[in-house]
Squalene monooxygenase (Penstemon smallii), 97 residues
Amino acid sequence: MYNAFISSIDKGTSIRIMPINSMPAAPYLVPGAILLGDALNMRHVITGGGMTAALNDVSFLCNILKHLNLDDTSAVTKKTDYFYKYRKVNDHDGPYN
């Protein structure tokens, strides 16, 4: 891969880029359901970021819910709101809390 890259630069081949835009969705507040990853914001399939976003969402959500009684609908709703407010949308925002 390295040699092909250097060869392209030496030939003066134009380097194409893929712009990545953020299109976050509005939170979908339905008791018992939480949107994660690509379902909550658009990512271009070529970047492979959707699975990373979903796994980061799961990790963040687990940390939020781990000491919560999941039968307490009011508490779960508050934590769901917190999740939607504080989850990171862009890869460049840094790690999740």
